[in-house]
């Protein structure tokens, strides 16, 4: 009370609310006025930010946290009353007619889509000090993930407009969700590279805020152990992207501009644009309101499966069910073998992979209205994210935590908010073509049991070469079998392309509009992969995490800087 004069009238209201909500511990240690006054004001500035950035404010956050923490303590089954079954989806096989038709349809549809990259995560598991989108997706060209994504979107924009009848001026909007951890470095990367060829007006950055940490089951906000005048905060998860798109007004702008799809994807998957056009084609053909990209999943793999859940009251939803919940749920609902492989050798429940295509157009404007309805009822509990809490308890009594926790949300939980008549499906695409994220550091990746994916810098880059080789093979090019090598304790392949005539390295660098036909034979020493020790700090970090570098011994390079038709005889 003695410190009240330090606060504005709005801050006094906030303090009253917090005290009513059982948060007086935040101020109990405050010294007499005149001591640490600036710090006291700074705490209130932070509280005001946390209050305004969360739909429904801190009151709603604390109420939701109490409910979820109580459910977690009693071990409430989140699927009580639901029966699981295998949902309908479309399984594609790369390169066949069905795939090609969907891919073509997806390219046609791309001009009606907006692309959204969720890049607020710092990637602590990867142990890389920079932002993940600045990492080279592969080191032969050194193209970083962000450049690769932008160039892929521009290529789709081009191809989509070429397929359209008549004039097409459409620019595909590109949104990047950042966080305090990634925002300024993402902006800097874009600005210093002239947005990698995209118009700056085409790109929008939306920053997600962190949320307050919680110390106990009563949802008492955690003070920062390093500064008792600050609240400890942590990321809220990629599910924030939906409310940010709504509150920024972008969804409305996109809808008014006639866009039909919003396509969400993650920060370090160098393969995903090989799978995106076909997935978009499936969405368009089936008029899915939500379509997730999935890859085949082995039963009992420690990763969630896409499942249809039907409630006794008639409600149903198609949703990712985490692996630790899927097996017990199946056993409890008439599947005595639980999560088991079927005759294909895979689980019938496919593995969700962070690509989501959301329809903007139908039911009516499902996505926008759901968000609007929910976000405008600010006093109500936030439903759009269907948050969850995952406290690490000290012991079985579940009365105290090992460290503070917080509410989180996932973008793939969005279908939980949809009415039962929503068309929610998925598209299964081979893992080699669609999914090779870079998430794990070399030490952890090398410990991954044989046969399981490494998801490291090494495997992410190798997967790109492998997919390119397999695509060339499908197109009739003869490609040697991969040579097995070990980098950072993980197996990879050193691919030497031997096109009809190529043994070594040939670079044909041509401008847009130049069509080069290459004939003849090339043989040179080419490029080789050399081992690099990930502990060798004289080597740049982005090279060390993959355990190899490319030694460009010899290459033949031809440049075509003018548009036109050319024939290169070698
Ligand atoms: N991300 C944010 O933008 N903000 C955040 O607060 C957190 C993350 P991770 P994880 O297919 O690969 C997800 O850390 O835990 C961004 C799915 O939940 O790589 O491995 C971040 O920058 C899981 O169901 O996620 O799991 C990155 O771009 C599965 O599908 C993205 O969110 C898995 O990804 C994912 O962050 C996958």
Helix content: 25-40%
Describe the largest sheet.
Answer: 8 strands, mixed
Major sheet strand order: 2-19-12-15-11-3-4-5
Overall strand count: 29
In words, what does this structure look like?
With 570 residues, the protein is an alpha/beta fold. It is 31% helix and 23% strand. It has 15 helices and 29 strands. The strands form 11 sheets. An 8-stranded mixed beta sheet has the order 2-19-12-15-11-3-4-5, sandwiched between helices. The chain has a 3-stranded antiparallel beta sheet with strand order 1-13-14. The chain is globular and about 85 Å long. The N and C termini lie far apart (85 Å).
Overview in brief:
Helix content is 31%, strand content 23%. By secondary structure, it is an alpha/beta fold.
């Amino acid at each position: 009370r003695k410190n009240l004069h330090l606060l504005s009238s709005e801050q006094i209201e906030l303090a009253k609310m917090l005290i009513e909500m059982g948060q007086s511990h935040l101020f109990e240690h405050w010294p007499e006025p005149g001591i640490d006054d600036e710090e006291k004001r700074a705490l209130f500035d932070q509280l005001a930010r946390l209050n305004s950035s969360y739909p429904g404010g801190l009151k709603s956050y604390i109420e939701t946290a109490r409910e979820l923490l109580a459910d977690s303590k009693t071990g409430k089954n989140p699927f009580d009353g639901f029966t699981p079954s295998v949902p309908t989806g479309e399984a594609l096989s790369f390169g066949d007619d069905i795939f090609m038709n969907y891919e073509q349809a997806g390219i046609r549809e791309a001009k009606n889509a907006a692309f959204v990259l969720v890049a607020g995560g710092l990637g602590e598991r990867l142990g890389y000090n920079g932002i993940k989108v600045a990492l080279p997706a592969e080191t032969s060209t050194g193209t970083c993930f962000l450049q690769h994504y932008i160039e892929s979107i521009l290529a789709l924009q081009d191809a989509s407009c070429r397929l359209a009848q008549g004039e097409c001026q459409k620019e595909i909007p590109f949104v990047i969700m950042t966080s305090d951890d990634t925002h300024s470095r993402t902006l800097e990367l874009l600005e210093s590279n002239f947005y990698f060829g995209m118009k700056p007006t085409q790109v929008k950055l939306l920053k997600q805020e962190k949320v307050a940490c919680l110390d106990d089951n009563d949802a008492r906000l955690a003070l920062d152990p390093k500064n008792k005048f600050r609240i400890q905060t942590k990321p809220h998860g990629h599910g924030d992207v939906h409310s940010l798109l709504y509150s920024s007004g972008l969804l409305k702008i996109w809808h008014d501009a006639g866009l039909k799809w919003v396509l969400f994807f993650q920060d370090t998957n160098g393969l995903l644009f090989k799978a995106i056009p076909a997935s978009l084609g499936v969405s368009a053909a089936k008029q899915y309101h939500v379509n997730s990209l999935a890859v085949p999943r082995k039963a009992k793999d420690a990763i969630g499966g896409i499942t249809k859940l039907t409630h006794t009251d008639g409600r149903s939803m198609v949703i990712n069910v985490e692996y630790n919940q899927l097996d017990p749920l199946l056993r409890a609902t008439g599947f005595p073998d639980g999560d088991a492989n079927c005759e294909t050798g895979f689980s019938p429940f496919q593995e969700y992979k962070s690509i989501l295509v959301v329809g903007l157009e139908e039911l009516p404007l499902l996505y926008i209205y759901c968000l609007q309805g929910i976000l405008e009822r600010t006093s109500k509990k936030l439903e759009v994210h269907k948050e969850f809490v995952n406290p690490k308890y000290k012991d079985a009594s579940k009365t105290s935590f090992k460290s503070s926790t917080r509410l989180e949300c996932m973008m793939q939980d969005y279908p939980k908010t949809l009415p039962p008549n929503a068309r929610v499906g998925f598209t299964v695409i081979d893992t080699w073509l669609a999914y090779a994220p870079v998430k794990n550091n070399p030490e952890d990746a090398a410990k991954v049991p044989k046969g399981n994916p490494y998801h490291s810098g090494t495997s992410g880059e190798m997967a790109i070469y492998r997919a390119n080789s397999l695509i060339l093979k499908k197109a009739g090019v003869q490609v040697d079998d991969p040579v097995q090598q070990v980098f950072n304790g993980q197996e990879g392949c050193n691919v030497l392309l031997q096109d009809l005539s190529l043994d070594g390295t040939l670079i044909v660098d041509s401008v847009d509009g130049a069509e080069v036909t290459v004939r003849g034979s090339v043989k040179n020493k080419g490029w080789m992969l050399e081992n690099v020790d990930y502990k060798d700090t004289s080597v740049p970090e982005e090279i060390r995490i993959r355990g190899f570098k490319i030694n460009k011994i010899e290459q033949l390079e031809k440049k075509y800087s003018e548009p036109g038709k050319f024939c290169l005889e070698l």
